[in-house]
C-alpha cells in the first residue's frame, strides 16, 4: 500500500493534492472507505463532522492539562494551523479564481468568505451584500452544536469559546478581522465578528465587512 | 452526543449555504487528520517525542467513553457480562468506525473475537498531504494510540481481569491491514 500511495501523489502539485483530498473525486480514499463502511455521503459528512468538531475541544483540553492554561492554549491555536490556507485554495477553485488578488470588491470577498467557512464545515449564508457592506451569517457551528461531549462541563466550554472562537486575538474572531487583509483589501475594508452564537448572542455567528470611512 | 434533529438541521444548513455534503465529508475529515497530525508534531516541537505520544494518546482516549455510551444506546446493550468478548468486539469496532476505518469481523466465537481494519484513511491522508513515510514517528504514535484505546475500552467495560487484546498488525507500520484479537484471559 505504501508504494501505491506514494506514487499516486508524488506527481501532483501541493495545490492539486489539497483539492484532491478536500473535494469529491472519483475513487478517492473517502469514497473507498464509504463503500466499505456502507455509508451514504450524508452519513459520511456527519461522521467527518463529529470527528472534526469534537477534536478541536479535546485538543484544547489535553494541551491545557499537559502544559498549563497559557502554554497549552498557545499550542492549541497552532494545531489547526494550515487548514485555513487549504480551505482558501478550495474556495478559490470553487469560484473559478486562480489567485486571491482577483478579489476586488466586498461582494466577491463575502462570497469567498462564505465558501471558505463552508469548507470548514460551518455553513454560511450571505444576508446582505453591496459595494459598501456585506453581512454573513454562520448558521451552523459544528463545534458548538455537534462537538459537545457527554461529560463536557458547560462552564468549561464557555471558557473555550471565549478564548478561541470569540477572541479578536485568535480563532474565528481574528480570522474575520484579518480576512480583508488576506484578500488585499485591508486598507479599504474592515471586518469584524459582530455576534457569536456559542456565547448566546444570537442564532448565528455574524460577520460584517464594511468599507472604511 | 448524537442528536438526530441537530444532524438534520446541519444537513439542511449545508444545502442552504450552497455547499455539497460530498465535499464536506472530505474536507472535514482532512480537518480532523490535520489536527491529529499537528497535535503530535506541535507537542513534539514543544516538549519532545515522549510527551507528544502521551498527549496524542490522551486526546484520542477521550473518545472511548463516548463510543461506549453511544454503543450502549445504539446497540441496546444493558451491560457487558464478564468475559463477553463478542460484545467487547462489537464496541471495539465502533472505535475504529468512528474515525472512518472500515472494520470486518474475521472470527467471533465465544472465546475469541478477531477483527481486521481493512483501510486507514488517516494513514493515507497523512502520507498524501504531509509527505510522511509509513512508520514515521506520527504513525508509530498512532499505532500506540490504537493499542491504548483498546486497552482503555476493556478497562472501562470492567473486563481488564477477564479479557485481553492483542494487536499484531498495523497499517501505519506497513501491514496490509490492522488486526485486533480480543480474547478471554487464560
Features:
heterodimer, A: 213 residues, 10 helices, 12% strand, B: alpha+beta, Muramoyl-pentapeptide Carboxypeptidase, domain 2, 4 strands, globular
Question: Can you give me a brief rundown of this structure?
Answer:
The complex is a heterodimer of chains A (213) and B (186). Helices cover 55% and strands 12% of the residues of chain A.
Intertermini distance of chain A: 58 Å
Distance between the termini of chain B: 37 Å
In total, how many beta strands of chain B? 4
Largest sheet of chain A: 4 strands, antiparallel
| Unreliable segments of 5+ consecutive residues of chain A | none
Number of helical stretches of at least 4 residues of chain B:
7
Strand order of the largest sheet of chain B: 1-2-4-3
Q: How many domains is the backbone of chain B divided into?
A: 1
Strand order of the largest sheet of chain A: 1-2-4-3
Radius of gyration of chain B: 18 Å
Total number of helical segments of chain A? 10
Mean pLDDT across every amino acid position of chain B = 96
DSSP strand content of chain B: 5-15%
The CATH superfamily of chain B turns out to be: Trafficking protein particle complex subunit 3
Number of domains of chain A: 1
Following the backbone from N to C, one meets helices and strands of chain B in this order, namely: HHHHHEEHHEE
Which term fits the overall shape of chain B?
Answer: globular
CATH topology of chain A: Muramoyl-pentapeptide Carboxypeptidase, domain 2
Name given to the CATH architecture of chain B: 2-Layer Sandwich
